[in-house]
Amino acid sequence: MSARWTRSCAKAPTPGSRYARGSAHSSLASVTPRTRTATRSPVARAFPSVGGGARRDLSDLSDPAPGGRLPSLLPAPVSQDRKGVTPLMLACEGGHVEVVRRLLAAGAPWNELDNDNHCAGEWASASGHGELAHMLIEHAVQAELVLGVVARRDREPDLSYLATPVRYDGDDKLLDEDNDAVMMSWEAPLMRLHARVICAAKGDVLNVGFGMGIIDGYIADENKTRSHTIIEAHPDVYAHMGRRGWMKKKNLRVEFGRWQDVLNAIADANHALPGGVSNENARLFDGVFFDTYGEEWDDMREFHALLPKVMRPGGVYSYFNGLAPDNIFFHTVYCRLAAKELGRLGFETSFDVVPIDTKSDEIWKGVKRRYWWGDTYFLPTCVLSGGTEGG
Ligand SMILES: C[S@@+](CC[C@H](N)C(=O)[O-])C[C@H]1O[C@@H](n2cnc3c(N)ncnc32)[C@H](O)[C@@H]1O
Questions:
Q1: Ligand 1 centre distance from Cα of residue 59 (Å)
Q2: Cβ atoms 193, 284 nearer than 8 A
């Protein structure tokens, strides 16, 4: 396990959370849609609150001589020039704290991208204005917490992935019908660490999303847990599990279905039998891992809301942390957002910094879209309050 990293980096967010960030531009190759959680929507669309909030004329702004192109763009806080540059980006580049504050208050979109796919937060950190990047992250998290609720109200679940075939490419990849990667073997070292995290208490463990069964292999082979449950919804993956003998393994329960159905049934059964438990659906877990495909941040939020109903106090939750991995700023916002929302549900979240190397083109051969560029993975450990010291 990598060393736990306590942040002091100016670019990173709130004290108390553990984050690390490299140079914003170095790990940002593009903002193509990614193909794991929150994948099918381009990053900018992944935040429904884009452009939310009141918009007003800023011609009354009186900042001390911002200079450059900023004054000509200021009267329209949502405008972009030929290169996609916004007033907010220029204000961030110049380190004009008051202008940034007022632009945000006026509804300037924090997540607009310029033509090179860089957002205002990256303009701030690339110019050495870590305090502004920090301010933008806080603003983004708050905006998403408040405005995201409105945008989500009439959301329909996207079931398209589950209705289309997937195929295994040996033991190296699981691909969807467009040749986007559902899962790849380079993630094995990460899965091994996730398995250790959720199996720490050696109790009842749940994995959501079998994929290539990598984490399930580590749970079963390296961690002696009291029980092991897998929820998997794709019929082709389920058939593969059968062929590989997973249904016959001891101490293992495989639930075929969407977690939305399976977990709600467990939560309902737990609720019907408080304190305990003879109904076969009623169960509590000590460790939970979440890693699905074709779903979005909003699905994950729904999943999180179910956790306190199906986990024991002191239990440990972790998830594949691949939200917006192609933009370090958006990724940081998602880390903060997840930690904040999980905090409201009673979880304390910390992030371990794990180095990863996916540079080799060999790794991505046969995959339509590469989904990871960075050299760092922030592995989340989320502990549900109420446990006793030492488990
Ligand atoms: C990225 S893979 C999981 C990889 C796994 N962690 C491993 O170590 O191999 C995602 C899996 O989630 C499954 N999945 C997608 N949506 C689901 C849902 N709503 N409920 C349950 N499983 C789902 C997919 O079919 C796929 O098998």
A1: 50
A2: no
Answer yes or no: pTM beyond 0.70. Answer: yes
Q: Determine the Cα–Cα distance for residues 153 and 91; give it in Å rounded to an integer.
A: 33
Shared-domain flag, residues 113 and 198:
no
- Give the pLDDT confidence score for residue 42 in this predicted structure: 31
Residue-wise burial string across 161-183, b where 16 or more C-beta atoms lie within 10 A, e elsewhere: bbeeebebeeebbbbbeeebbbb
In one letter, which amino acid is 53?
Answer: G
Same domain (yes/no): 355, 211: yes
Any domain includes 138: yes
If one compares 27 and 214, the residue with the highest pLDDT of the two is 214
More confident residue, 173 or 15: 173
Which DSSP helix (H) or strand (E) runs through 188?
helix 188-198
- Ligand 1-lining residues (CB < 6 angstroms): 182-183, 191, 208-215, 231-234, 237, 258-260, 291-295
Pick from 123, 152, 181: which residue ends a domain? 152
Please give the helix or strand (H or E) that residue 382 lies within, else none. strand 376-384
Neighbours of 10 (CB within 10 A): 14
Domain that includes residue 117, residue range? 43-152
| Distance from C-alpha of 82 to C-alpha of 78, rounded to nearest angstrom | 13
- Are 246 and 363 within one domain? yes
End position of a domain, from candidates 152, 178, 208: 152
For ligand 1, the distance from its centroid to the CA atom of residue 288, given in whole angstroms, is: 14
Q: What are phi and psi of 254, to 5 degrees?
A: -105, 125
